[in-house]
Design a protein that fits this description.
It is found in: Cytoplasm, Cytosol. GO terms for molecular function: ATP binding; protein serine/threonine kinase activity; protein tyrosine kinase activity. This is non-specific serine/threonine protein kinase. Its EC number is 2.7.11.1. Keywords: ATP-binding, Cytoplasm, Kinase, Nucleotide-binding, Phosphoprotein, Serine/threonine-protein kinase, Transferase, Tyrosine-protein kinase. This protein has 406 residues and is an alpha+beta fold. The protein folds into 3 domains: 51 residues, no CATH class; 106 residues, Phosphorylase Kinase, domain 1, CATH 3.30.200; 186 residues, Transferase(Phosphotransferase), domain 1 (Orthogonal Bundle), CATH 1.10.510. The protein contains 10 helices and 11 strands. Strands 1-2-3-7-4 form a 5-stranded antiparallel sheet, with helices on one face. A two-stranded antiparallel ribbon has the order 5-6. Strands 8-11 form a two-stranded antiparallel sheet. It is globular and about 90 Å long.
């Protein structure tokens, strides 16, 4: 940048100070970045110092593209706040001032989970960010938010002991304070204006996946296997009765309380079941748990959850992960074209093996409803044992080697 003294170039015309007109970028503007005109950038080298209004500068050195990007983000935040202020509050809208977010728990595909308290209740807070990365168009983001608003209205009415309790949600509030390892000047993350927040009850027992991994060697008693399977089956049966398809049933999305009661969580990709199956297509879920029709891009319905339950039932009994020796591509292809399924141990009681096979049938129409699965599980007698034999006591049972676990 060329900087000259007043006596070399004559009198420099003084730049008018920007006013406070609406849309003007005053001295408090946050549009600071590469090419920004700050007093720090305009300090002259050599003797003496000059204020910005005593300088002249070359316009070709200004990064206008960077300024445009920052201006767009600034206006987007202002627009989002205005829209938020104008929209009427829903009954499920949380009061952000009652929410205390304490620390990060996990990061997932569809959001980031924090632990905190809401109105003195332990809660899990999931932040969903759609469109801030610039990948989604304004129309796509608006459609996602509209769909989310509609489905949250359904979730807040769900009430079942095997479904994680919904506390509330927020559609893009800017009043949340999120702790960060790389904080801003006030120690908190600056939320993107399009972020959505979901608040759920916090369960202290951790995920079912973690619990199964902890018991991968000693296994679970048959009574505990059936108890966990029944909890999951009853929760899914309830969701299906409310026309909700979870679409990502897996051990990682099931939580346990301190009494080992299982509750279904993570409704990040759940949706209200369409009346026309043709309206529900696409690969949604987690490989290894996804039904063949979902992997193949065909229309599907609630029976995709039944398939995933069958895989989870195998996991609960074996305390193992399926298809550990295959890649994602191999699993996807073999499940659809070769009818690949996890191998059932010989020590597994036929009553339980029968349920697994019915649930993961390749034909969705042949899979039972979850209400029927509940009845089948309730009919199993657990007083005579039948659990998976521990690895160090493998008396003729099909057991897995090497050591299992993620």
């Amino acid at each position: 940048m060329d900087v000259k003294k007043d006596d070399e170039v004559g009198e420099v015309p003084k730049t008018e100070k920007p006013g406070n007109e609406e849309g003007g970028l005053g001295s408090n503007s946050k549009l600071i970045g590469k090419g920004s005109l700050t007093s720090k950038n305009l300090l002259a080298k050599g003797t003496g110092s000059f204020s910005s209004k005593d300088m002249i500068f070359r316009a070709d050195k200004i990064d206008l593209k960077s300024l445009d990007v920052q201006l767009e983000k600034h206006l987007s935040r202002v627009w989002s706040r205005n829209v938020e202020a104008q929209m009427p509050k829903e009954e499920w809208e949380i009061d952000p001032f009652k929410l205390d977010i304490r620390y990060l728990v996990a990061r997932g595909t569809y959001g980031t989970v924090y632990r905190g308290t809401y109105d003195n209740q332990d809660v899990a807070v999931k932040l969903l960010d759609w469109g801030e990365d610039g990948m989604a168009t304004t129309a796509e983001t608006a459609a996602l938010r509209a769909s989310f608003r509609q489905e949250v209205a359904v979730w807040q009415k769900l009430d079942h002991p095997n479904v994680t309790k919904f506390v509330g949600a927020s559609m893009g509030t800017s009043d949340l304070k999120i702790p960060s390892k790389n904080p801003s000047s006030d120690g908190n993350i600056i939320l993107p204006p399009r972020a959505c927040c979901v608040v759920l009850e916090y369960l202290h027992g951790g995920t079912l996946k973690k619990f199964l991994f902890q018991n991968r060697k000693k296994k679970l008693t048959f009574k505990i296997v059936i108890q966990l399977a029944l909890d999951l089956a009853r929760g899914l049966s309830y969701l299906h009765s409310e026309k909700i398809v979870h679409r990502d049933v897996k051990a990682e999305n099931m939580l346990l309380d301190t009494h080992r009661n299982l509750k279904i969580a993570d409704f990040g990709v759940a949706r209200v079941e369409a009346q026309n199956p043709q309206d529900m297509t696409g690969e949604t879920g987690t490989l290894g748990y996804m039904a063949p029709e979902v992997l193949d891009g065909k229309p599907y319905n609630r029976k995709c959850d039944v398939y995933s339950f069958g895989i989870c039932l195998w996991e609960i009994y074996c305390c193992d992960l399926p298809y550990t020796n295959l890649s994602f591509v191999e699993v996807s292809s073999a499940v659809v074209r070769q009818n690949l399924r996890p191998e059932i141990p010989r020590c597994c009681p036929s009553s339980l093996a029968h349920i697994m096979k019915k649930c993961w049938d390749a034909n969705p129409e042949k899979r039972p409803d979850m209400s029927e699965v509940v009845r089948l599980l309730e009919a199993i007698d657990t007083t005579k044992g039948g659990g998976m034999i521990p690895e160090d006591q493998g008396a003729g049972c099909f057991c897995f080697a090497p050591v299992r676990g993620p």
